Amino acid sequence: MKKLSVAGLVLMLICGMLAGCSWQQTSATGEDKNNVKLWVPFSGPDGPKFEEIVRSYNKSQKKYNVDLQIIPSSEYYKMVNLTLSSKNNLPDLMIMHADRIVDYATKDQLLKTSILTKSKKISAKDYHPKALQASKVNGSTYGIPLDIHPLMFYWNKDLFKKAGLDPNKPPKNAQEFREYAKKLTVPEKSQYGFAVPTVGTQPFLFQTILAQKGGKLYSDGHFNYTSKEALNTLNFERDLIYKDKVSPSGLAIDGDLKLFLQGKNAMHFNGPWMLAQFEDSGMNYGVAPVPQIGEKQQKVWANSHNFVIPKKKEGEKLGAITDFLNYVGNHGMAWAESGQAPASKAVYTSKAFQKLNQQPKVAESFDFAEYPPQVENWGQVSEFLNQEINLVLLGKKDSKKALKDAQRKAEQYLE
């Protein structure tokens, strides 16, 4: 089967073939002022939960309607780039990751959310400040946060028991982490204490440990890929493979995840979006905020899904958008049930939320969230670092040389 091109997706949107699309045209500008076209990339297990929120909102009142359009996550930002650049077939509202907002805000393609928070229905104080801060560009806020999704720590409780470890007490620091990993490693059974990811979640883990050591990837207009904190972080991960031998070498993408699901990897870092898969696996697992492996402070990589409003020539449907966002802020438990932790205080402080298993532990990490640097095209810039880290963890390159090459490539890219 051929892959659908971006142009093909655009045609599907124009023709109204995507699920939930009605494209009503009743005003002079060709837009129904009470109909909000919403784009989201939730094409995985979390999609049905978000659909549940939209259906519930549409049934809750008769004035407004939200047309939800789920675009495959692999194609999502291609669509966003195309439509924001051409200003054709723009949605009224869309989901955007916090670390992508800077790419569009600096091009004046998004509305500042101050136009929404002037309303009594939406207030900045109703959301966790870390999430709001992450959507700020040059002092202005461009996103209303749906959630905060930090890296989380998972462990196999059955393997902990067999190793003589308390299955309800995960490691709290680097020393315990290493000790546990060694006890949990059984070479003759091809069982490992901690399978170090070489790609996939590796950037999240690297940024987490780096921040815990007091380091930053980018600050004051400069890359810090060659800092002592970055070198120490990379060497810590490398040594788990080649010195401590608590991890297999040469893992491919998601190799650490596959081993965890097979009961061959005792400790694992991943995001809260994995809840459904872990639950379906039937594994006896624990979940907690990441341990403080770095010696300086508790920090954890995080990102957020945000609602953003594209600038449109025909004017924004602020009344309908404000009403919907207010509803989501107060009725986000369905999103929490997907494994995520909504950034709305009305949800994450509620009794219903606190009764969930994983999600309250996700919210415990909110105060320690460390977002990616606000650098345009950060995805591409950081990829130079990710590629070099991969080579080190595969045993193909020296740590210092790799970090030096990553910094050189990043600096050249932004020249």
Description:
By secondary structure, the chain is α/β, with parallel strands linked by helices. The protein has two domains: 6-148 and 304-370, 3-Layer(aba) Sandwich (D-Maltodextrin-Binding Protein, domain 2); 150-302 and 377-413, D-Maltodextrin-Binding Protein, domain 2 (3-Layer(aba) Sandwich). It has 19 helices and 16 strands. Strands 2-1-3-15-6 form a five-stranded mixed β-sheet. A four-stranded mixed β-sheet has the order 9-12-8-13. A hairpin with a 2-residue loop joins strand 4 and strand 5 (140-141). The protein is globular. The model is unreliable at 1-29 (pLDDT under 50).
Low-confidence stretches are 1-29
* Widest sheet: strand ordering: 2-1-3-15-6
Average of the residue pLDDT scores: 91
Q: Within the CATH hierarchy, at the fold level, what is the topology of the largest domain?
A: D-Maltodextrin-Binding Protein, domain 2
Q: What is the second-level CATH architecture of the largest domain?
A: 3-Layer(aba) Sandwich
Q: Biggest β-sheet, characterized?
A: 5 strands, mixed
Quick one: how many beta strands? 16
- Assembly state of the chains shown: single chain
Structural Rg: 22 Å
Continuous helix count: 19
- Number of structural domains: 2
Approximate strand percentage = 5-15%
CATH superfamily name of the largest domain?
Answer: Periplasmic binding protein-like II
**What distance separates the N and C termini?**
41 Å
Could you say which overall geometry the principal axes of the C-alpha atoms support? globular
- Under CATH at level 1, the class of the largest domain stands as Alpha Beta
Structural class estimated from helices and strands: alpha/beta
Helix fraction? Answer: 40-55%
